[in-house]
User: Which sequence fits this backbone?
């Protein structure tokens, strides 16, 4: 994440922090994966329906993730401007665990398990430029025992 995006995210998160709480890691993440097969199918369908004049590709909505020692914050990223649009969720680190990190060819991910809500959320980090952020966030969230 570049410095401009990081400053905008820190500005949005700062008002939500408790006294003494500090942001320890930030990252630009995705919460859903768009498979290669779906992308090819969508591109072919758009090309056929438009008579070859248009092609389309699906892209997941980028999100900002900020992590303090006590909480994780998720914000919807504005695709046009380098700033968070709105706050989506806050997770208490004491209530969440993560799975082992899955390192892929293009993206790395882990599943965040929220024990208080009984839900799970797969978080994707960019392979190139996001590995340092992934390791910093993963170090804050305890790994679930299998």
Assistant:
């Amino acid at each position: 994440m570049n410095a401009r995006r990081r400053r905008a995210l820190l500005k949005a998160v700062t008002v939500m922090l408790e006294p003494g709480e500090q942001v320890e890691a930030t990252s630009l993440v995705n919460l859903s994966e768009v498979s290669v097969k779906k992308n090819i199918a969508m591109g072919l369908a758009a090309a056929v329906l438009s008579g070859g004049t248009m092609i389309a590709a699906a892209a997941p909505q980028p999100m900002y993730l900020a992590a303090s020692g006590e909480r994780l914050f998720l914000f919807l990223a504005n695709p046009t401007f380098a700033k968070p649009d709105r706050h989506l969720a806050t997770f208490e680190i004491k209530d969440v665990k993560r799975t082992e990190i899955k390192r892929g060819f293009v993206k790395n991910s882990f599943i965040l398990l929220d024990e208080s809500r009984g839900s799970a959320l797969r978080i994707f980090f960019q392979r190139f430029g996001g590995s340092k952020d992934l390791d910093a966030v993963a170090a804050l969230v305890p790994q679930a025992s299998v």
In short: The beta strands are 23-30, 62-68, 71-77, 84-92, 96-98, 102-103, 107-114, 119-126. The radius of gyration is 17 Å.
